[in-house]
Structure formats: structure tokens, C-alpha cells
Amino acid sequence: MFSLDQLTAFVAVAEELHFGRAAERLNMTQPPLSRQVQKLERAVGVQLFERDNRRVVLTEAGQAFLGEARRLLALVETAGDLARRVDQGAAGTLRLGFTAVSAIRTLGPFLRRVSDELPEVDVILHERVTSAQIDGLLHGELDLALARPPYDPHLLDSQVVAREPLCAALPADHPLTALDRPLTAADFAAEEVISYDPVRAAYFHELTIRFLAGSQHRITQRVQQVLTVVLLVAAGRGVALVPESARDLGVPGVTFREIALAGEPVELHAIWHRDSANPVLRRVRAMLSEHQ
Amino acid sequence: MFSLDQLTAFVAVAEELHFGRAAERLNMTQPPLSRQVQKLERAVGVQLFERDNRRVVLTEAGQAFLGEARRLLALVETAGDLARRVDQGAAGTLRLGFTAVSAIRTLGPFLRRVSDELPEVDVILHERVTSAQIDGLLHGELDLALARPPYDPHLLDSQVVAREPLCAALPADHPLTALDRPLTAADFAAEEVISYDPVRAAYFHELTIRFLAGSQHRITQRVQQVLTVVLLVAAGRGVALVPESARDLGVPGVTFREIALAGEPVELHAIWHRDSANPVLRRVRAMLSEHQ
DNA sequence: AGAACATGATTCCCGAAAGGTATCACTCGA
DNA sequence: TCGAGTGATACCTTTCGGGAATCATGTTCT
């Protein structure tokens, strides 16, 4: 097999049609250049130059080979580019988990920023509930998740990407919608409250429990997804606490009301595996912490 | 810049994910293989493998580079093929000169044989009168000519590719068409004979002169092309001697008659420059002498 | 816990290959 | 016929790649 040095030697001679000048261009002397070309000819099995003591001409085969050689060398030049871009996280794929509700206000702008700042990065989207996203991160099926606590902080790391208040979701014809002040836990005393799965939707479960702590209430349903909760409210099955962005789901028959603030707002986290090897993740994290 | 050996080393390790086995596959020992991969990583500027003392894994960048490396090596494998085919005349271009009349019976089958036996050869056709073809051969504008003598045998070489009888071309209403025997020179005694340019169509000029030698006749026109001759006959401007294939020109108003054989038949030659460097020419010549 | 094993990296040595200098062989032009 | 120009060759030096031995480290089995 021939070597790349032999190819560059050949191309130089083919362009100069003069061994001396070609050698000068390659910063070497003429004899080793002649030998390299001879070796290449032996390796390919074809005479590439017709060399008279007076002039050098490409043979037909040499002309054909010149094209191949140039293509090959061009490919060599650019061979490392993609690898370097991938190494710096500027190219590659990001497997991103998200929940239906997180998507409403956060996913779109996030994807737009990625495609602006890292145009060679492909984002593969996986819609999953939070717990399934955490599993995905731990099993290496996802690189980044837009989800909510809790998660194992030894293995996973995170950053808050959005905060929003919790609010009450009421059927449109519910008496509480008439009140002109933030609702309190006491207002829910007589209500049937739709709440969340303590395991699969632990975050909203906690928030709901905390808000209602000490008041009378009945919890009738425990579901996983905010969307489901809103749909149940619309169906008149009770009232619920949801993140404010649930307004944007546009489910008819549901009215949202401010509540008397019960501690910190709802947080959406970007979560990743502490020792993910994906370089794109580094870049995306840097992008996230950059502004905000 | 990296070397092809480094690429093959990298691909082997990437496929085995084990330096020892990869080294075995490459018929070498493990230490130099490790070094080659390290060098490649330095040359590309990217870490290609994540190597634990227990296992070897491709990095994201390594996976990207693996694709490039495979493409490059595949190209190297096939780089010489085209050059070798060109060298053996199995690929390339043949610039072929021909005359309108030679084309009728000879050119079609010839082109068909070339595209059957040398499918990678492109034939570029140049229709020229014989003398222009000879010039083309001498100036290196043509590789092969389908033409007729004379030519300079020091510089050009040839081979007969077709023989056919000379015959008489008469206006359809001419009295001689009534005769039921081969025509002789004497039959032309009273005729106006259309003949050929002594310089540019020397071959037919010679044949005509030789046939008519010693008889009475009047030569009224001297033209270069057989086709022109036949058109003049059709126009009633006289009679002429033409190769039999001129029948196939399909010019109306012309009748062809056998003549009393005056020596050898009309020959069509394939002519080439003695020191043409085009390898396709070698193959085509071999093809021509192969069967006939 | 400790020993044996597995595996990639490192070190040192040797031989092959590449580059440099001097020279040869040949052609062309004066 | 001689000198200039050009590619090939001979020979030497340097560089580079491969091999054997060894190291460092992590895993596994007793």
C-alpha cells in the first residue's frame, strides 16, 4: 500500500511537472522525491509519469490517478474536523427528555437556542414522565432531562431552568372562581382535591400536601401528569394545584386562580448524569448557565 | 498529519475494542499499536478512545472519526483501480475520426464492439475528410482514424478494417443502366465522369484514374466527399465510381451497377500514430486484429 | 485481604525506511 | 563539442516503527 507522503509527492510533481521544483516546494531535495514517486508507481502498479531526461509528462493513467490523489488528500485534510467539532460538543446528538407541561413554555425556546448556537447538534426528543426521565438518565438512554426533583444527587446534577407559581385549577362553574382574592388552604376544606402520585409525581404531590397541610380536604385521585389533572378538573371531578403554565394547555372548562403563596414556586430543572461522556452536554450546560 | 497505518491501527482497535486482539489482527505486538493510536490522537487533536485499565470505549469524537477513517481507507483501496484500468486501456477516451461513407457500414459495428468489450472507454467522434483526419493524427488531436491511404508510413501505422468493391453510380434514367453486364472503362467513353480531388481525396482519385486508364472520358468535377459525388450523380451531372456502400446512403435517383474488376477493392483503414501514448489505442488495436 | 491475572502504557533496543550529499547518465542548445 | 539542465543512482546519516521486557493499575478468585 502507498503512503500519504507518496501521494503528496506525486501531486506536487504532477503540478510542477519538474522534480526539482516539486522537491523545493515540499522542502526536500530531489533524490528522495524521485524515489517516493517510484515507490508509488510500484505500489499502484502503473507508470504515472513519462520522464524523459528533458521533460516530465503525466501518462493517461497518471492523469486519472491525479484526480483520485487529490480527492484523497482533500479528505485527509478534513477528516479530523468532524471529530474535533464533536469533541468540543459543537456537533453530535443530545437525547433530551421532557414532560408535556415543561414543554409548554420551556422546550421551544430551549430548542431554538440549541439550533442557533450549536447548529450541528441534533436533539432527539423523548417525552416521558419525570420518573421515567430519571431512569433514562441513569441508564444512559438520555443525556439531559427537563424534569423536577427528586433525584439522586450523587449520580445526577441539575440546574433550575424555570420557576413559576403554583395556582389553583377549578371547574369554570365552581363557586370559588367568584372569590376575588388568592385562595388559601381553608378555601379547599370542603373540596375534592385531585392530587398526584406520591412516587411518580412526587414533586407536585409534595407541593400539594404542603399547601393543604392542616386543612380539611379530600384527595380523590392520584395521577402522574399535570395534563391529566387539568382534564379531570375540566370534567368536574374536583379542584387541583398545578403550575401556572398549565393555563397554556388551553383546556376548556377550567379556570385558574392565584393561591396564597405557600413557600417557593414550582421549579423546572435540567438534570444530567454527573459522568456523562457526551461532549454536547458540556456545551449545552455552558449555554444554560451563560445567561440565566 | 496522520498516516494511513495509523488509520488502520485505529480502525482495528475501534472494531476489537481491545489493543491486544487488534494488535494480533494486524500481525504486530501491542506496544507499537498503542503508540500509533496515541500519535493519531495527537495528530487529530482529539481523544478517540476512553481507556480504562479494564476496557476500551470509543469516545463520541472517536465514533465520528471512525466513519471518516473507514471512508478514507476504502478510497485508498480503490484509488489505484481506475489508474490501472486506464493503463491497460480498459478505461479512458478514444478520439476517433471517420468519414461519412466509412460510417455507413463500419462505424456502427465498431462502436458497438468498443462499448461491449471496453465499456469504460468513451469514444469521441470527429467527422472529417480523410486528409483532415491524417492531420489530426499527426497533431495528436485524434487517436484513431477510419480513413483511406495515402499517409506517411513513417509516422502512421494502419490496418485494413473493411474491403468492398468499387461500383458505378449512374443517374436512374441513364442508358447504361439498361446493360445487363459489368460495365467497363469503354462504356464510360462518352460520359461525363465526376471524380475526386487529387489531393484531398487521393485514394478515390487514384482508383478512378486507374479504372478509366486508356479510355475516352471527360472529368467534369473534382470533389472531396463520396456523398457529394452521389448527390451530383443524382442531379444528372454525370456518372461516377463509388464504393459499394454508397448504395446505403439512400440517395434517390441514383442506380448502382457492377463494374469489370479493375484490380483490388476499396479498402478502409484504421490508422493511428506510431507513438501514440494512449493505452486505449493499444486495446482497440488488439480488438481489431483479434477477429479480422 | 491478598495473590494471580488482565490490560494498556512505558522503556529500551534494533532494523528498516526516509532524507541528504555527491555523482552519474543523458539530452539539448550554442 | 561542450556546458547547462534534469532525473536516477550510490552511499551515508537520521528518523521512525516494531519487538521484548517491564510497569501500573484494576479485577477476580480464593
Automatic annotation (TrEMBL), chains A, B:
Q: Which PROSITE patterns match?
A: HTH_LYSR
DNA-binding recorded as keyword: yes
One short Pfam name that applies is LysR_substrate
Q: Which domain of life is it from?
A: Bacteria
GO terms for CC? protein-DNA complex
The entry assigns this protein to a family as follows:
Belongs to the LysR transcriptional regulatory family.
Protein known as: LysR family transcriptional regulator
Protein's organism: Kribbella albertanoniae
